[in-house]
Every structure is written in C-alpha cells, then in structure tokens.
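Hi C.,

You asked whether I'd gotten around to modeling the 407-residue construct. I have! Everything is below, sequence then structure, no commentary in between.
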Amino acid sequence: MDAKAVLARNARDTRLDLFLGLANWFIFLDHIPHNIVNWITVRNYGFSGAADAFVFISGYTAANVYAMIMLERGTVVGATRVLRRAWQLYAAFVVLFAIYIVAIGDVAARYAAPDIIYEFNIAGLVEEPVRTVAHGLLLQSRALNLDVLQLYVLLMACFPAVLWAMLRKPGLTMAASLVLYLAARQFEWNLSSFPDGSWNLNPFCWQLVFVLGAWCALGGTRDRQSIVKSPIPFYVGAAYLIFALAMTMAGRFPDFGHMFPSWLLDAFNPNDRTNLAPYRVLHFIVVALFVMRFMSKDWHGLKWPVFKPAILCGQQSLSVFCVGVFLSFTGHFVLMTGSGSLAEQLLVSVSGIMIMTLVAGYVSWSKRQDHPLPGRKPSLQAGEPTLSAGAPASGRIGRYPLMRSSR
C-alpha cells in the first residue's frame, strides 16, 4: 500500500479529534493546582499524560495534512505549507505570551501578590523586562504552562525535513528519531531558556512522540496490526498499565509507597517528564494500542452527543489550547483569592471547559462563513471583477483546493 492510499484511508478519523479535544481539557485542568477535578486526568493513573497525546496527535495530523500536498505538488510547496502552519503557531504563541505576562504582572501589582510572578516563572520580567520579552520571542521562555505550545512551534518548524525523509525512508527516519532521543538522554542535550535553566519539555526527546505520530499516519503500523489483536501483548500491556498505576499512586500517597522497595519507587518517581523517560513512552504506546483495540475508527459511539463537545474542541485545537492556558491562570487566581472550596473548584473547572467549547463552536462557525452555502454560487457585488475564462476559481490552484487545516 503506497503513502497516498494510506493517507486516504486515515483521513477523517474522528478519534483524533476526540482525544485531541480531551487532551486540551486535561491540560487545562492539570494547569490548575489544588483542584480536585484534575484527578480525572490521565496523568494521575499512569506514566504518560495529556501532553503525550497532544504531541502524538499533532504529529499524526501534520503528516495527514501535509504529506499529500508534498506528494502531489512537490517538496517545495509542501514545505512552504508546513512552514506557514509553523508561523501561525508562532504568532499564536507570541500573542498568548504577551497576554499571559501582562495579565500575571497586572494581577501581581493590583493584588499585591508578588509570589505569583515567581510561581509562573516570569520573575525576570521585573528586573529585565526587555530581555525577558526578547528571549520569549526566541522561544526561550520558561513561563509556566506555555511549554507545550513552545514545543509544538519548534517541532512544526523542523517538520518539512522530517516529512521529506519520512515519505522516502519511513523506517530509517523513525530509527533516526529514536537515536536522537537516546543520544539526548545520554548526553543531556537540551535547549537553554532565559534567565537560566533549559526547556521544560526537551525537544530533542519529545520529537520522538511527534515523529512516531507521523510514522503511524504514513502506515508505519500497517504490517503490525496483529499485535493489536494478539492475546499475549494484550495481557503484558494490561500488566504494565497496572504496574504504572501502582507506581504513580505510590508516588502520590507515601503510606502506599512504603509497601514497595525504595529502589523501585525511586526509579519511577518523580516522573521524568522533561526528558520523556522511556517508561513514559512505553506507557503511551500501550495506551494507544488499547484504544485501537477497543475503539475502532468506525465505532458508532463516536456519534454520541456526549462526545461532540470534545470532538469540536479537537477540531479547533489551537484556539482551544490558547484559551485554555489563559483560563487555567484565571482559574488558579480565582481559587487563590477565593475560598478554594470543592464547589468553587467544580465551578472553575466546568466553567473553563464550557468556555473552551463555546470558543471552539464560534471558531468553527466563523470558518464556515468563509465558504458558500451548499448548492449556491457566491453572488458578485456590483463593481466586483469577474473571473476570466479559464481562470481558476477562488480558493483553488489548478485542481487542488487550498488546504485550510482546522487544527
């Protein structure tokens, strides 16, 4: 099966939108400390978390969208489309970074809460505001909760070369990604941040999950489908998920942790999120295999109304993510200044998810207004130029429609 056939088969997989939407919700909840609602997120029950799913699905989606363009229209056109998307992500990061630091600085000054500046890693804004902003624009910020988007920008900027290699030598490209991951962990490679330290999510390590997503989208697992349905991997995987749950709970509850030897407990706690520990990668792969086993692409439950909000948020992931980051800060501040009661935690969490869903709905509606209604031709206003004979229709180049990714 060639790459075009694989891409056609993988197109419009609603599971991607569903889990990307859930990942956005979970990231929002995880960014609000002292919130009992974030106990529903996946990071509490194993080694991997919502960030792993976000990065994997982003790589899968990027390959799905841009590989066909590169195959049909050439490497240069495909690369420019990827870089355009990277620029959109960077612009979103810059806007979010600016709003974020201004909002935190204003809250700290208005409510005499200077500690919040240190809590969100923007203390340099007070002593060296110009350098702090400049380094932020260079993706060297350590501002809390912006690390996932910062990583996403860099991965997309490097993706043209990865996609070019993946379309020609997928196995070799995946192997090279694994070698880079192992080398980064062995030699402690990472990118620096300002004013000190390094990236919260090491891009040399996290690229493995992104490239793995692209590799799967281009058919990397098509010859390994038997693993999903085989009983032995199923039982081994289930045992590993139980072990991961036990180790995670042991790290969170000291009394339970005393039941295990210290050498075993220390091997998995604290969870190495920055450099993406191998046990974390394995945990995510096992979870993904279980999802594939029990939720097929054509599963009728994907049409249930209960999943529609999450699917909608997955379809408008960038907008939802940016709103979620700001809402997580707002929610954290509300709980800090309020009573912090269970009712308040529930209100903050549910309200945030509802606002994210409303934003996704508005963005989806707004995008639909840019297209003519089905069965209708757009009318021309008086004085507007008409298309000359043989000219391509608006929004098309030759026979290829201009790609407008919803992510």
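If it helps when you're writing up: DSSP finds 18 helices and two strands in the chain.

Thanks,
B.
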